[in-house]
Amino acid sequence: MAKVKGIFLTFSGFFLVMLVVALSVLVATTLQQSNARLMESGSLERVYVLDTSLERVIADIKNQIDYDLYWDDDTFAFELHLTETLNSNFDDYGNNFSSDLQSLISFVELDQSEITFFPSAVYNNDEKLPVVVKPHGFKYTHLNQGGETVLVAYPRTYIPYIEFDLVLPETDFGSGIQWTTQNPGDGMTFVLSVEDSDGDIDTFEQNISINSTNEFEVGGVDIIVGRLCNQCVELDRNSNEVISTLRTRFPFSSEIPTLNYPTGLYILDFRELGVYLNSTPRIFDISVTFNNGYV
Amino acid sequence: MKLKQIWIFGYKDKKAFIFTMDVAVALIVVFSLLFTASFFVVRKAEDPFVNLQTLKIGSDIIKIIDYTSLLDNPDGTEITNFIENNLPAQYGMQIIGSSEGSCYFEAGSDPLPSGRISSGKEFYSVGNEYCSMRYKVWLK
Fold it and tell me: Looking at chain B, which residue has its C-alpha nearest residue A11?
């Protein structure tokens, strides 16, 4: 009897110790994994901070486009205005931007070898300064057509409204056009306002579909909407200096639209940390204001 | 003398002695394991969260410094005053503009000789010059 008690006691003690050992190993392993996740989180935070600071610096580089993005309570949509003066040929267009960006690239790639830039994402022989509105995929860019800078906007997803305001300083143009689509699912409202040398604003109106061919000439400026420019709105200033403002609306969604340079302008490749980031730099130089005063 | 006395005890006394020794050894093993486990639990549980938090506080302060335009023409004294007025009292921070020329500045206090320090790096620009800074944050 005493022997059985002894064996029972010994085994009980043994299992108790094993239980403690097993629990200790379990706790240590879990904590080790948790620690590893937190270390990863810390590394990601460091890379994120580095990435956002670089985005801020890139956004501060002046390109020649003025941005304005705001919420309009009346239309219940985000309104985006992009204004610029188109007064140069394609080779000259955006030279200040490309020069400043090149200085930044030289500095950053030397300072942080894990970062590599691909400037052709924002300027190359065919296209310069493309701006993308996320999440809608709307693209506003400048193409090379025979050495001339042509402004092109690709609505991509359904955009109900696009408006061009043109200021033609040396042209006296005296009539108005406004396009309004008959089939909202098939096209969009297109409004063109032209300000002449006297400051008079003329508005043109016509029904339009993005799926059909629409070509106009206003004071020496060619405007093509739809099929001829591959589902886009194209503005070719010819030889005139044109101040253009493109206005468009993005219907309400849970995600606030953001202006970005295209994906792939630079990558962050921290192999030791297992982090690879193909950046889509956000242009911060925008103001989001609400009609009710909230910013 | 005492050792000799132990060996001349009877069978019953030896059994008690072995039982006592067994319990003692078992208790030592159990308490060692418990102590080791709790040591690792305490050590591993306290560090990473605090380090992550200090890192986030550092990056927040840098963002505010940037948004208040203090980096447009960085001045070590101004930025030090800003840090002293805005960084929670239980933290210490040092920022060094790593580039030369108008980018260079030193702000904040020197880190403690011992203790854990979280550090990060950010880019910024001064006029047409591009710069980077490294910051260190620690719990006082």
Answer: B26
Q: Is the pLDDT of residue A104 over 90?
A: yes
CA angle at residue A270 from A269 to A276, to 5 degrees? 50
Q: How are beta strands A213-218 and A266-270 bridged, if at all?
A: unpaired
ipTM of the complex: 0.76
Mean of the pLDDT values across residues A135-157? 86
Instruction: Search chain A and give the residue with CA nearest B128.
Output: A100
Which residues of chain B register pLDDT less than 50? 1
Does the pLDDT of residue A203 top 60, yes or no? yes
In chain B, what are the domain boundaries? 2-139
pTM for this entry: 0.77
CA A129 to chain centre: 11
Q: Determine the straight-line distance between the first and last CA of chain A, rounded to whole angstroms.
A: 84
The pLDDT tens digits for A10-33 are 788 778 878 877 887 888 788 788
Alpha-carbon distance A20 to A219, whole Å?
A: 87
**Long-range pairs for B12-16 at CB < 8 Å and ≥24 separation?**
none
pLDDT for A54 equals 94
Q: Mind telling me how many Å the CA of A16 is from chain B's nearest CA?
A: 9
Residue A83 has pLDDT above 70, yes or no: yes
Q: Which residues 30-49 on chain B approach chain A with CB closer than 8 angstroms?
A: 30, 33-34, 36-37, 40-41, 44-45, 47-49
Residues 77-116 of A with CB under 8 A from B: 100, 103-104, 107-108, 111-112
What one-character-per-residue DSSP string does A25-61 give? HHHHHHHHHHHHHHHHHHHHHHHHHHHHHHHHHHHHS
- Cβ–Cβ under 8 Å, residues B50 and B139: yes
How far apart CA A46 and CA A48 sit, in angstroms, is: 5
Distance (Å, whole) CA A25 – CA A234:
67
For chain A, domain boundaries: 1-60, 64-290
Angle, helices A2-60 vs B11-67, to 10°: value is 10
